[in-house]
Amino acid sequence: MSHQTLLLTLSGLDRPGVTRQLFTALDHYPVTVEDVEQLVVRGRLVLSVLLALESQHPAQSNEPRAEPSADDPVLAELRRAIRLVAAELDMEVALVVGAREDSSHRRDRIHVTVLGSPLRPSAIAQVAEVIAGRGGNIDRIRRIASYPVTAVVFESSGADVYALRHALTASVGQIGADIAVQAAGLDRRGQHLVVMDVDSTVIQDEVIDLLALEAGVVDAVSAITERAMAGQLDFTASLRERVALLKGLPVSALDTVLSRITLTPGARTLCRTLNNLGYRVCLVSGGFIEVVGPLAAELGVDDVRANALEVSDGVLTGHLVGEIIDRAGKKRALESFAAEYSIPMRRTIAIGDGANDIDMLEAAGLGVAFNGKAAARAAADASVSVPYLDSVLYLLGITREEIEDADALTGFSTPSPPV
């Protein structure tokens, strides 16, 4: 049986009972609901419904049924009834006869998450321009957070996710906002693994510098670090040289360093929320397990990889023991964690800030540079430049409300945003 379609869009001040009243009126007519979407923004409702109206005119036995025209009496009566409901609700209504359902936007969908502090209109305009320039269509835009940053998600379709990610990443400097581009498929719903660097990511400090302060060798350690930054030493060589300067430092200094560590704002919220939502969370560090281990236990993460200092007679020997966790070691740790928890690499998230994190950022399903150096930003899929580590949650599609709901379930009191 052929049928006519009618797309109605109702808009106006929201109040209880609007949806009920509309669909109660529609139930008196020979229609089926093909599609429906409703959105409320700041107390204003937009409700769109695609209806299919069955023809009431029988066709001849050897002829196909004719699709009713726009002046079909049943369709005309339905349109009058809808306008009457809109008038009773003091709302506006738009009616389009013959609108077809477009199912293409339901497949190959992409989520583009944009973070700003503040979020400027120009950022929204430029993101929209890039999406359109890559053949994409914006199906919906919604806010997922207003604190500590403003985060919105563009739900789009029609573009290639990798081409769009490359274009938007290249435009971040001009857009003036942080951006992540992800396919909106089933992988967003499965269990994920999040692996984070520690120094200058989970914590605001560099542990080797804090140890150097205790050992009185700050200048010497800094000089080695500068040589490494200039490319004169690789990470492993520079690490061994710096650790050698710690020879003779009492083990008790490790407790002193641990007490001086400053967590990055949002680190506790990030770990707590991911744990509440069933994510696997691990730390990987070019620092030292003697400091990173207790920190990991405090944050409740699942596992940790870090370098180990050799100790003899209660003092540091100036040597390391075991596998060196360097740039390649961090990637191996990511892959090892994923295998251990049976999580596909495409559902892994790596977060780091430096060149030493590049391999794991590139290997992960989503690599996030957190206040990263230029090399890390270039390698990552997304970059966060605000000082709040929990902003990474928004890149994963987790809303501020979901963070607060997860806290409520565990009895944690989420701090209120500033007024």
List keywords for this structure.
Alpha-Beta Plaits, 419 residues, 15 strands, single chain, 7-stranded mixed β-sheet, 3 domains, Rossmann fold, elongated, 4-stranded antiparallel β-sheet, 16 helices
Separation of the first and last Cα atoms: 58 Å
Strand order of the largest sheet: 12-11-10-9-13-14-15
User: How many domains is the backbone divided into?
Assistant: 3
- Share of helix among residues? 25-40%
Query: Low-confidence parts, pLDDT < 50 over ≥5 residues?
Result: 58-68
Mean pLDDT across every amino acid position: 89
CATH architecture of the largest domain: 3-Layer(aba) Sandwich
Q: Structural class of the secondary structure composition?
A: alpha/beta
Number of helices: 16
What CATH calls the topology of the largest domain is: Rossmann fold
Strand content: 25-35%
User: Mind telling me the CATH superfamily name of the largest domain?
Assistant: HAD superfamily/HAD-like
The value of Rg in angstroms is: 28 Å
Please tell me what the overall shape is. Answer: elongated
Q: Mind summarizing the main beta sheet?
A: 7 strands, mixed
Number of strands: 15
- Please write the CATH class name of the largest domain: Alpha Beta
Structure commentary:
This protein folds into 3 domains: 3-101, ACT domain (Alpha-Beta Plaits); 107-184, Alpha-Beta Plaits, CATH 3.30.70.260; 193-203 and 263-409, HAD superfamily/HAD-like (Rossmann fold), CATH 3.40.50. The longest helix has 17 residues, at 73-89. Helix 13 links the parallel strand 13 (348-352) and strand 14 (366-370). Residues 58-68 have low confidence and may be disordered. With 419 residues, the protein is of the alpha/beta class. It has 16 helices and 15 strands. The strands form 3 sheets. Strands 12-11-10-9-13-14-15 form a 7-stranded mixed sheet, with helices on both faces. The radius of gyration is 28 Å and the shape is elongated.
